[in-house]
Amino acid sequence: MARVSGGNHWQPLGSFPEFVGPLQGLPWVPLYQPPPKSHGMAVASLVLGIVSIVFVPFGLLFGIPAVYCGHVARVEIARQPGEFGGHGLAIGGLVTGYIGTAMGAVSLVLFVMLCLALTN
After folding, report:
1. Does residue 72 contact residue 42 with C-beta atoms inside 8 Å?
2. Measured between alpha carbons, how far is 55 from 48 in angstroms, rounded to an integer?
3. Distance of alpha carbon 103 from alpha carbon 113, whole angstroms
4. Where are the alpha helices (DSSP H) in the chain?
5. Is 89 left (phi over 0), alpha (psi -120 to 50) or beta?
6. In a domain, 6, yes or no
7. CA–CA distance from 31 to each of 2, 28, 34, 45 (Å)?
8. Model pTM?
9. For 84-120, how does the pLDDT look when each residue is reduced to its tens digit (9 = 90+)?
10. 30 inside domain
């Protein structure tokens, strides 16, 4: 929409003779398209992955579900890319889930070794 300098009402740009030629035949493209909604499993994967790193002794309890949710989210996002977003969240959940799982497994092994050393 545009208006003539000093005019009171707005008119479509195509109604001005100066712009009829250059604008003719061009498709209308919206300037902003909102991104698709983040997949819930991707968000859950990232949250569980972060919790598995922060609470190291419970890394196995939170890391394994984080990895599972991340893989499920990536598959569903790939199937329906227009409907779901959050691919980066799923990748972040996978990475933090794997790290948390590894840290939890190491802490479990160290705990068992410490218990065995104290009993002998």
Report:
1. no
2. 10
3. 15
4. 17-23, 40-54, 59-79, 87-119
5. alpha
6. no
7. 17, 9, 10, 32
8. 0.71
9. 999 999 999 999 999 999 999 999 999 999 999 998 7
10. no
**Token output for 19:** 């712009």
**How many C-beta neighbours within 10 Å does residue 56 have?**
14
For 88, the token pair is: 């980066």
Question: Residue 119 is encoded by which pair of tokens?
Answer: 């009993």
> In total, how many domains does the chain have?
1
The amino acid present at 79, given as its one-letter code, is R
User: Residues 47-96: pLDDT tens digits?
Assistant: 999 999 999 989 999 999 999 999 999 999 999 988 999 999 999 999 99
Q: Looking only at Cα atoms, what is the longest distance across the chain?
A: 96
As a whole number of angstroms, the distance between CA 45 and CA 63 comes to 9
What's the CA gap between 28 and 9, in Å, rounded? 23
The closest of 118, 119, 120, 72 to 94, measured between CA atoms, is 72
Distance CA(31)–CA(81), nearest Å, equals 20
- 5: in domain: no
Residue 84 lies in a domain: yes
- Dist CA 28 CA 14 (whole Å): 12
Q: What domain range is 98 assigned to? A: 38-119
